[in-house]
Amino acid sequence: MDDAPGTPPAASMDRLAARIAACTLCPLSLSRTRTVPGEGPVPSPLLFIGEAPGKTEDETGRPFVGRAGKILTGLLACCGIRRDDVFITSIVKCRPPGNRAPKRDEIAACMPYLEAQIALLSPRVLVPMGRFATVAVFGMYGIPFSSFREVRGRRYVVREHRSGREMTIIPVYHPAVITHNPPARQDLESDFRKLAECIRSTPGSHK
Ligand code: SF4
């Protein structure tokens, strides 16, 4: 997936999105309407990683534009973060049929795209949202996963595979949690408060 040395990261990200648009590496290519590679500034100090595109995302090709997206935008605003200042993507770039959870082999097939995005974005803070994204990101950096409740809101420092640069991972609840479990709002807001603290204390992660 490497471009010629000296290629601007934004140009490489566009080429990566084109590769994703043509991807048939897993069965999700058969049922998708559009691929959803992610969007935001390149490079980006903050990278938010969801589980998979939903119906609205599949129709528009844009990440987090449905109900969960509105919740995410509100949570970011509460943390003093403009949505336009962060890159948002997911661990699989195509919608699983009926919004089911992505399968292990589908995630494995798609993860090299996320890894390439991380190399291009040079983020300071990675924010996997929800259990599936957290398991996938922890797996990428060899962090043992116990239970989501135990790891959410905590910080994990890792090194980016290609550059060796230090990054902080802070898992949070997926914004969609409150659409099927309204009492989880407190936990979700608490996660984002911890995230805001983490961002404030991480050099280069905020403007
Ligand atoms: S989910 Fe990922 S690996 Fe599967 S077809 Fe879509 S882009 Fe390719």
Description:
The protein has 207 residues and is of the alpha/beta class. The protein is built from nine helices and five strands, in the order ααβααβαβααββαα. It has helices at 9-21, 28-31, 55-60, 67-78, 104-121, 131-140, 148-151, 177-180, 185-200; strands spanning 46-50, 87-90, 125-128, 156-159, 166-169. A hairpin with a 6-residue loop joins strand 4 and strand 5. The longest helix has 18 residues, at 104-121. It is globular. It starts with 8 loop residues before the first helix and ends in a 7-residue tail after the last helix. Bound molecules: iron/sulfur cluster (SF4). Iron/sulfur cluster binds at residues 20, 23-26, 28-29, 35, 92-94, 106, 109-110.
Strand order of the largest sheet: 2-1-3-5-4
Main β sheet profile: 5 strands, mixed
Order of helices and strands: HHEHHEHEHHEEHH
What's the average pLDDT? 93
Tally of separate helices? 9
Stretches where pLDDT is under 50 for at least 5 consecutive residues are: none
Which outline best applies? globular
| Helix amount | 40-55%
Q: Return Rg in Å.
A: 16 Å
Number of domains: 1
Question: Which CATH class?
Answer: Alpha Beta
Spatial separation of the terminal alpha carbons: 30 Å
How many strand elements?
A: 5
The CATH architecture name reads: 3-Layer(aba) Sandwich
Bound molecules: iron/sulfur cluster
Task: Using the coordinates shown, work out and report the CATH topology.
Answer: Uracil-DNA Glycosylase, subunit E
Structural class: alpha/beta
Strand content: 5-15%
CATH homologous superfamily, by name? Uracil-DNA glycosylase-like domain
